[in-house]
Design goal:
The protein has about 100 residues and is mostly helical. It has four helices and two strands, in the order E-H-H-E-H-H. A two-stranded antiparallel sheet has the order 1-2. The chain is elongated and about 60 Å long.
């Protein structure tokens, strides 16, 4: 099953910004959101980037760090859940 990709322009309109928005230009300058289409998770990251920059005053480099840490946290949470499930399966097997 393929993931539906969303046009960057559509996400920016939804966020109430334009394609030429300063925050978006700075994000592209940092190498973020280079494509014209986004996966849903990337669209959520763009939403978060807008909040960080426009409402909290975080610069583009700070957004890059925040998004990297967020992705890493999600990966660690998934790994912890998988390890917990494996331990539970092992416990049931040994009982």
């Amino acid at each position: 099953m393929s993931v539906k990709r969303i046009q960057t322009d559509e996400v920016l309109v939804y966020l109430g910004t334009e394609r030429g928005a300063t925050f978006f230009q700075r994000l592209r300058g940092e190498g973020l959101f280079e494509g014209d289409e986004l996966e849903p998770s990337e669209a959520d990251e763009l939403r978060l980037a807008r909040v960080l920059m426009e409402e909290l005053g975080v610069n583009a480099a700070g957004v890059d760090v925040a998004l990297h840490l967020r992705r890493r946290l999600f990966a660690l949470e998934a790994r912890a859940r998988a390890l917990g499930a494996a331990l539970e399966a092992e416990r049931r097997h040994d009982s």
